[in-house]
Design brief:
This protein is an alpha+beta fold. It has 13 helices and 14 strands. The chain has helices at 8-18, 31-41, 55-61, 69-78, 102-115, 125-138, 162-172, 191-194, 208-223, 228-235, 240-253, 303-310, 370-386, and strands at 4-6, 44-45, 82-86, 90-94, 176-182, 185-190, 225-226, 257-262, 268-273, 290-292, 331-336, 339-349, 354-362, 391-394. The strands form four sheets. It has a five-stranded mixed sheet, with helices on one face. A four-stranded mixed sheet has the order 1-8-9-7. α13 links the parallel β13 and β14. α6 (125-138) crosses α7 (162-172), α9 packs across α10 (228-235) and α10 packs across α11 (240-253). It is globular, with a radius of gyration of 23 Å. Residues 154-158 have low confidence and may be disordered.
Length: 403
Amino acid sequence: MAIQKLDNRTARLLFMDRHALAEQPSGGGKGAELLDLIHRLGFVQLDSINTVARAHDMILFSRRPSYRAQNLKRLYERDRALFEHWTHDAAVIPMEFYRHWHLRFQRDAELLKSRWKNWRRDGFEQQFQTVLNHIRDHGPVSSSDVGKDEKKGSGGWWDWHPSKTALEFLWRSGALTVVGRRGFQKRYDLTERVIDTHLCPGGADIDAPETVNWLCNAALDRLGFATSGELAAFWDTVSATEAREWVKQALRRGEIEEVEITCADGQTRKLVSKPVLADTKPQAAPPGRIRVLSPFDPMLRDRNRAERLFGFHYRIEVFVPEAKRTYGYYVFPLLEGDRLIGRIDMKAHRDRGVLQVSAVWPERSVKWSTARTGRLTSELDRVRRFAGLDRVEFSTDWLKEPK
């Protein structure tokens, strides 16, 4: 059978559709409808930086303008429809997926123990039961509630006091569950008090092949097409070797097939997809409005993939010294239709009620026009209302030359 071929625009649209960006930004932003959106995305990355709004809130708002931050908090902390753990970073994940995280708990425990060569000698292990007993007797805690008089270590996690390290280890290995955040500080409780029993098989019952199969299938559903490396990276639990073997076996069974994608630079790449890919292409053109995306938007989390599909080179510069930054501390990508057309440096000055726009850099292929400025202004007005601000202000010479 001939390999299915997708031109670049079709590939972009399909990828956007899987990330809920090919349709009009509308629909319910709370309750079951919000949960359905997160299920569709797979997870939503959490991040503490609040230049305009937190990353997870910007991700959801860009797709559902009716969304507000308290809606996610309610779904997570009150309804227990989500749990928090790691994919490639900290994220909230549909509770329905929890049973597939036991392999991650097991592997995280092994990884962390291998990093802490002296963890028994330095007294961290003995804190595990102490911390568990404290939570059992006193209820959920944050790191500020335990270990106040303990001596910190030196370097990495050893900068934390033993009880703080114990909390993180017990969470990452599944004994504790994060039940919410106060500010942005995690609060932990015993998993047995939070997670339904049917989602918590014992360690001996973990079926690694079944979990790997689910994770690879679920990643491919959300990517549309992928390399084995991209499948492994999506949830960041499956190893590269396991993903390659899964692709090999799934191809042999006819569950997936090869597909050829044309990249933004005209080169082609062979990836794999589900056989129904041709039947799931979005029918309508994406909305022409401009949308501000979070730097941690799921469509951009794999920077290399985004560059191949959209020709958009993006790197966050939070940890780059100011003098060496190309753009700025926390610069937001701009999406228009099916193109990433530039990036914007802006910040909420809450004391003045102002969303301050410092700079906009169009991509080299984009001719900036008065009409585009109008579409950008409309989007920024939506963003400033979402952030609870009164007005938008543009700095002098805000429109920059492409770099």
